[in-house]
Amino acid sequence: MNTPILELHDVHARYGREEVLRGITLRLAPGAWFCLLGPNGAGKSTLLHCISTRLQPSSGEVRIDGHALSTDAVAAKQALGFAAAPEQLPDLLTGRQCLEVYALAKGAEEIDAAVLALAAQLGFMKFIDKCVDTYSLGTRQKLCVLLALLGEPRLIVLDEAFNGLDPVSALILKRHLRERLQRGRCAVLLATHSLDIVEHYADRAALLLEGRLVHEWQGSEIRSATRAGGNRLEEMIAGAMESTVLAASLDGR
Is residue 170 a part of any domain in this protein? Predict the structure, then answer.
């Protein structure tokens, strides 16, 4: 069997005294597009930060492509492509300089040809030699994703990466990610509020609520809800949220 691209075992995380993640366990296989759903404040970004090493879990284990972050962080990070938030890009560098720095960090002497080809498709090349502080939100978002794709990462982690993208660019990026997945060499973890992406691209989706993964849907369930028409998928997710909140209130948690 192939080594899982991502393994989380009983991951807890906190900010000060506040526990944000309460025992997350998850495995992603090669070729999987996994969508992480949940309301604002549920802990989605915190979970992604634990995977990207921006935040150290208070307990539990994170493994990327078989490498534990706690004991083999360098190899784990080499297998990771993480799209930082657009506001975290260095304003005084150009897009090309950002790409070159990231490529060097991945051990490459130049920017991946595939990433430059995607940049051209996204209409980014006309901005590549301009400073980041002149970029619109959509252009910053494109750069964030391009940075995440450098070095043929085994795990691609995206946090609302389609926000600010025009419809054509969003479609180009979705197709590009799907092509990478079909080659079976990576997995995608996307935190999103977009049910359109869940409906058409997710192989699995899970609901994160109050720091716990409370429900998971397989692709077949998602497609069935989509075929049912109306707001069936939206109702399915809302129903899972409501039942979880009700159960928690009855338990006195």
Answer: no
